[in-house]
Structure formats: structure tokens, C-alpha cells
Amino acid sequence: MSHALTFEWADGRTARVDARPDETVVEAAERESVALPFGCLTGACATCTARLLDGHVAYRRPPRGLKPDQREAGYVLACVAEPRSDCRLRVGVDVHRELVDNPWK
Ligand code: FES
């Protein structure tokens, strides 16, 4: 069964895609040509971090890039998260910026 994913960006843009069974959030977005940030695609770098506003996901691989308190706060790694229900997610680089202090600034 597929699940509807609604993406929300900080600038007010939104997009909707359908995720097929066993497809991750990033895979569904890429298939539908919706650009989300990602890097390693293995759950390690956290570049793909999104905030789950509604719905449930299950992890294909351990989300090593997130600390337990970040997961509890609703952050998810979109590259390894498979939707288990319709989901609404806040996406974009702003979400990642909330998690880490940029050492280059
Ligand atoms: S792209 Fe690296 S954790 Fe998702």
C-alpha cells in the first residue's frame, strides 16, 4: 500500500508525492523529481534530516546520524525512513541547521 507524503519547506512551498511500499522518503521524492537534501544515503551524515509533523516511519537501517533526543523531538532521517502511514514532513536545509552548530561560520 502506498502512502501520501506531504513536504513543507520553510518558505511556504509544499509538495505531495506517493511513496510505494518499501520506498524511503528520499527515494519517493527522487522518483517524483522533488529535490530534498541528502548525502550518504546510509543514515550516517544527517544531511537528509526532516521533521516528522504527522505520521509514522520505520527505519530500513539504523538512523546513526541522529541522537536519541533528536529522534524523540521528531527528527527523522529521510534516506532510511520508510513511511508506514501518510506523513507530513518539514524538509529542507533549515531543518538540518536546527540540529547542528555550523563549525564554519
Ligand atoms: S543522507 Fe546521510 S543520513 Fe541520510
UniProtKB/TrEMBL annotation:
Residues 3-99 form the 2Fe-2S ferredoxin-type domain. Belongs to the 2Fe2S plant-type ferredoxin family. Transmembrane segments: none annotated. SUPFAM superfamilies: 2Fe-2S ferredoxin-like (SSF54292). One of its GO terms (molecular function) is metal ion binding. The lineage of its organism: Archaea, Methanobacteriati, Methanobacteriota, Stenosarchaea group, Halobacteria. Its cofactor is [2Fe-2S] cluster. It comes from Halomarina ordinaria. This is 2Fe-2S iron-sulfur cluster-binding protein. InterPro entries: 2Fe-2S_ferredoxin-like_sf (IPR036010), 2Fe-2S_ferredoxin-type (IPR001041), 2Fe2S_fd_BS (IPR006058), Beta-grasp_dom_sf (IPR012675). Keywords: 2Fe-2S, Electron transport, Iron, Iron-sulfur, Metal-binding, Transport.
